[in-house]
Write a structure and sequence with these properties.
Layout: E1 2-4, H1 5-17, H2 21-35, E2 45-47, H3 61-69, E3 73-80, E4 85-90, E5 97-99, E6 105-107, E7 120-124, E8 127-128, E9 134-135, H4 141-148, E10 154-158, E11 166-168, E12 179-181, E13 186-188
Length: 189
């Protein structure tokens, strides 16, 4: 059965809100462990999102530990809600993180990195389908950002839940994922 993006947003926001703190932590750790099976670790520049804990997003702290343990360059973003643009900054020991008005943890400033340098992007989402299309919060930040990346940038969705059969209303401009990782499996598109 096909569902529209709007229906799916409601469904998955509710499913996430019903997760306990412990479930979020356990499933986030399982997602991080599954990432180790994907052939991305020879890459250097990894873009990661810092989770909005109020939305019970995948806690990327475990992935951050993996990346720093493997000595990767970690890039985080700051969103401009008037232009819908994201600027990307190298995460260093000196990076100051501050929550914006939408509770998104962001770097205050730092060393800016162009989108074209990024090798791997971990993409936040509410749900995805078996073709690698995702449903986000609908603001279009990631669609715009992913379109600015190199064509061979690896895009990896992170989800607590398994794939939907098909998402209705996918646009030409929607950029598909290469992988999506859940606590139980890795989808490859």
């Amino acid at each position: 059965m096909q569902s529209t993006k709007k229906e799916l947003r409601i469904k998955y926001k509710n499913l996430r809100q019903n997760l306990s703190e412990d479930e979020v932590e356990e499933m986030s750790l399982a997602v991080a462990n599954k990432l180790l099976t994907i052939p991305i670790w020879e890459k250097n520049y990894f873009h990661i999102f810092l989770p909005i804990s109020e939305h019970k997003e995948v806690n990327t702290e475990f992935i951050l530990h993996l990346l720093s343990g493997k000595d990767k360059d970690i890039i985080i973003s700051k969103s401009d809600f008037t232009t819908r643009n994201m600027s990307h900054f190298l995460l260093t020991d000196n990076t100051k993180i501050k929550k914006n008005e939408y509770n998104i943890p962001e770097p205050v400033d730092g060393i800016e990195i162009p989108s074209t340098k990024i090798d791997v992007v971990f993409v936040p989402l509410l749900t995805f389908d078996k073709k690698g299309h995702r449903v986000g919060y609908g603001k279009g930040f990631y669609d715009k950002f992913l379109s600015e990346c190199k064509p061979d940038t690896i895009k990896i969705g992170l989800s607590f839940f398994e794939a939907e059969e098909l998402i209705e209303g996918i646009f030409e401009g929607d950029i598909a994922l290469n992988y999506c990782v859940t606590p139980d499996r890795v989808y490859s598109f």
